[in-house]
Amino acid sequence: MDISNYDSDYLKFYEKRKSNSPHFELPSCELGFNSRSTVVTAFTNPYRVYLHKYGEDIHVSESILAGSANGNMFEAYTRIIMTQMLNALNIKNPVIVDIGANIGLHALYFGSLGFEVHAFEPFKKNSELLSCSISANRFYNIKLNKFGLSELENEMCMDVPQKNNHGHAVVSKSSKCENPLKFKRLDDYINSDMKGIIPDVIKIDIEGHEFKALITAKEIFKLKKPKLIFSEFYPVFMREQNVITAEYWQYLKDLGYEVFDLRGKKVTLENIDRNMDIVAIDKNYVDVVYKSSF
User: Fold this and answer.
1) Which residues are 204's β-sheet partners?
2) How many CB atoms lie under 10 A from the CB of residue 231?
3) DSSP per residue over 114-180, as a string?
4) Which member of 79, 114, 164, 186 has the lowest number of beta carbons within 10 Å of its beta carbon?
5) pLDDT tens, 249-287?
6) Can you give the pLDDT at residue 234?
7) Residue 269 has what pLDDT?
8) What is the number of structural domains in the chain?
9) Is 98 helix (H, G, I), strand (E, B) or coil?
């Protein structure tokens, strides 16, 4: 996919970068700035991304390395759609919540635009790299939270069953847990750290745990909700996390979202029983988004 598909949309945001960007404390780079990295030069505002060691992460790290000059990186099409929809909504100072940030593929992209980004990544190997990227780029507008989001504030042991995938994990059934991951609640985070400000966009990709991460904010979102939620909707992963597919679907419908695939086709529960990426759009903005974006 060529960067020309969305470079103009990127420029629209870059040219009107907000002057009142938030100023979060930069995380420390414990790995050292000499660790493996590359500079993404495809966009107007280049930025450095720290990567997993060669051979450890073929999905994200290697795609960034290969596509840093032309934007053809992992989930490039998702960022095209996100950028187009944000332009259509004409949000002045977008606030993005990135749940399951991994090494920062989306968070750093939006950080380079000056957006306020709240990134959540509980896995140490990922968060260490993202810390270095945020610090190296002096992205004061990105706040990295080294914990995940769930229905309860607790610690859990997670298994990573797939080699070369530092994002796919399921709750461990083992009684032994040497390095438990921390989890907090989204409603608590919005009320405290975000001081009640509702994000304009949520991007969530946490391998079937999406419903458990979002459910705590339902009462908040009944009053005011994100305009867009970009989410994985993978029934196979949901079953691994003991989530009923219909529950997540009903959650989105109860809050007044219309659900589409990333090509703009409206999705129903009956035809969503397969793994796919979706965007839930506040029904009050569906016409605005699709008249301008497609």
Assistant:
1) 99, 231
2) 25
3) T-EEEEE---HHHHHHHHHHHHHHT-TTEEEESSEE-SSSEEE-EE--STT-SS--EE---S--SSP
4) 164
5) 999 999 999 999 999 999 998 887 678 899 999 999 999
6) 86
7) 86
8) 1
9) strand
Question: Would 10 be classed as within a structural domain?
Answer: no
Strand partners, 231: 204, 278
Write out residues in the chain with pLDDT < 70, as ranges: 1-8, 13-20, 159-178, 273, 292-294
What residues contact residue 182 under an 8 Å CB cut-off, 6+ apart? 122, 146, 147, 148, 155
Task: Flag whether 237 is in a domain.
Answer: yes
Percentage of residues of the chain with pLDDT beyond 70: 86
Domain range for residue 279?
A: 76-293
CATH of the domain at 145: 3.40.50.150
pLDDT (0 to 100) of residue 1: 44
Integer Cα distance of 60 and 159 in angstroms:
19
pTM: 0.91
CA–CA separation, 191 and 203 (whole Å): 19
- CA 68 from centroid of its chain's CA atoms: 19
Residue 23 within a domain: no
Residue 57 included in any domain: no
- Widest distance between CA atoms in the chain: 53
